[in-house]
Amino acid sequence: MARLGNVSFFILSESHNYKNTITEHPVEDGNDIADHVGSTPTTFNISGMCTGQDAPSKYAQLLELFRKKEPVTYVGRGRINTVVIESFPSDRDADIANGFNFSLTLKQVRIVKTSTVDLLAPEVRAQVKDVGNAGRVQAS
User: In terms of Cα–Cα distance, which of 1, 6, 16 is closest to 104?
Assistant: First the structure.
């Protein structure tokens, strides 16, 4: 059993996509040089199944997680914090009487918080001398 947020389901398959972005620039002789490597967010592709009396409720909960766009924790083969559902296709067919198959694409997101800082405290600002007018200065 896997869990996304508070929703539990069966995993059929799970794959992880780790990727770096490498910036390249051409140089004089026509070759490219790489000067920086940056990490891109990790993506997780999950195929799963929900069955039983609570399957409609689980479908609604997964759809709500998709619509909220808020980071949640995924627990499957491992534990991954701060993932958001990027896509959520699902299939309902005659093969599963009381349930549905689905695929999830989860993307790990990095959350940053902004902070503000006062540049000069009011008491320091009062101690700074005003810039005077130097008049015209002849360049030599």
Answer: 16
